[in-house]
From TrEMBL:
Domain 5'-Nucleotidase C-terminal, first and last residues per copy: 374-539
UniProt keyword annotation of Membrane present: no
Keyword Transport tagged: no
Chain ranges passing through the membrane: none
Pfam families, per the entry: 5_nucleotid_C, Metallophos
Gene Ontology molecular function terms on file: endonuclease activity
Protein name per Swiss-Prot or TrEMBL: Endonuclease YhcR
Entries under SUPFAM superfamilies matching the protein: 5'-nucleotidase (syn. UDP-sugar hydrolase), C-terminal domain, Metallo-dependent phosphatases
Family from the record: Belongs to the 5'-nucleotidase family.
Domain of life: Bacteria
InterPro entries to which the protein is assigned, alphabetical: 5'-Nucleotdase_C, 5'-Nucleotdase_C_sf, 5_nucleotidase/apyrase, Calcineurin-like_PHP, Metallo-depent_PP-like
Family annotation (PROSITE patterns): PROKAR_LIPOPROTEIN
Keywords tagged on the record: Endonuclease, Hydrolase, Nuclease, Nucleotide-binding, Signal
Amino acid sequence: MLRRQETPYNEWRMKNNLLLIGAALSLSSCSMILGPSTVDVTVIGVNDFHGNLLPTSFRVPDPADRTKTLTVQAGGVEAIGGILAEARKANPNTIFVGVGDMTGASPLISGLLRDEPTINALNGLGMAVNVVGNHEFDYGFAELQRYQKGGCNSNDAAKACKFNNTFEGAKFTYIASNVLDEKTGQPVLPAYKIVQVGNAKVAFVGAVLKDTPTVVTPAGVAGLKFEDEVKSINAAIPTIKRMGADAIVALVHQGGTSGDAFDIVNCKTLSGPIVDIAKNLDPAVSAIMTGHTHRGYNCLVPGPDGKDRTVIQGDALGHLLQRLDMTIDTRANRVTAIRASNVVVDAAKTPKDAAMTALVQKAKDLTDPIARTVIATLGVEQITRAAGPNGESLLGRVIADSQLAAAAPADKGGAVIALMNPGGIRADLPVNVPNASKQVTYGDAFTVQPFGNILTVITLTGAQIKAALEQQFDNPSAGSNRLLQVSRGFTYTWDNAKPKGDKVSEIKLGGQAIDPAASYRVVLNNFLADGGDGFTTFAQGTNRLGGDLDIDAFRAYLTSTTVTPDTTERIKRLN
């Protein structure tokens, strides 16, 4: 009979120890092949760029006396390219991202060419991903799809494919987790993108403000539904984790404001809609890069787990770049350290990107002949859009007067009142001072009014006018006001101490009280006429008549006379 051969215990132990040692050596060898488990990754982001290929004025704290500021020329794709080149040289694991509003409301150098120079510039700068902002919908979703895919089938054939004979589209990916098809309920854009950099997989998950339909021309978002930002981002997190992401960064085109300057690190003074979003996003999100409110900040907000995390935003127009320097443990799939900063894009001190210089020059060659045309001489060096305590701005009055002048003739609608949304006034006139000649060009005027909105005359009752004025308060959110700019001869009083719905009184036209039952012809741009910016009452207007483009009315008014802004108060504020 055969007997099983027994292995002596000492021999068995020796063999197993050798196996364990061999396994350990094998793992060590694999570890050396795979490299270290930690990776340093730099993420650089730009928000609310709005096609500003060239630098513009920006105020920064004076390092010698922080109670004062200095004006620098900041932004522009040449300097942004220089900063990115330096960052990539220092750390090849650098990712460039957008936090919305890369296009739309753009100056003439980009806007006259349907923002194709901006898309091409961002491609050349190596942008990997951009969460859509509200302005990405300015021209409608079909045009946004063209921006992604390329081609010349645009809804503005006069401007499309004029920068190049063909348009290749964005090499970066537009994302948004909360934009759905209204009929099917299905997402129309990817919720996230995972970028491989070194040994790390960095996931960028995005959302645009859920109130986008209130700040975009209704035609621009027709057929789309915008869901809650937190709910939508959190729903994407489990899938992102399954995909093996080592770090998750949220790109949210919604923001807030801070009482601290943009260069204060880890501020605790952030307020606004982004705070509630940040407090409720999944703890797996390591940092939140934001936009929309055009204000630089670098703050900490506690998440649902009670741990602070970075919430950062740069200034608009490329003045500041958001920067995150992260150390990522790729074995543990987590961020072990993060440092955040806002980088001033000082155009005078930053090396220029040669490819961007060539791109800018090409765009200028195509648009400068139009931009440089002097159209008017002002009575002052500059008319500003800065609003006073009552909500009025000098430039707002001028624009409202220009629209009334264009629509007052009987054949143009017979308007007696003009109302202008402040968000549609994009710059001072002209943008930069000093301006000793007091001259303004078509490019200056276009920068102020770049949307190409159509002036629309509607009939409203006096009661509807009051109802619309009451919608200025707690707009776009509680505690915020969005004061319409009004034309000459139209006046009213608002009381900040009164409850919402009862703030406005003494509404007059030509010194006479508005009759709630009477009808009045009111001119506004088509964005407002369709109920934009939360002014839903305007959508009830009747007898609509389309007219001139807002930029054409503005230019005609500036050309017709030497414009000196009216300083007479049209809106009176109490309390």
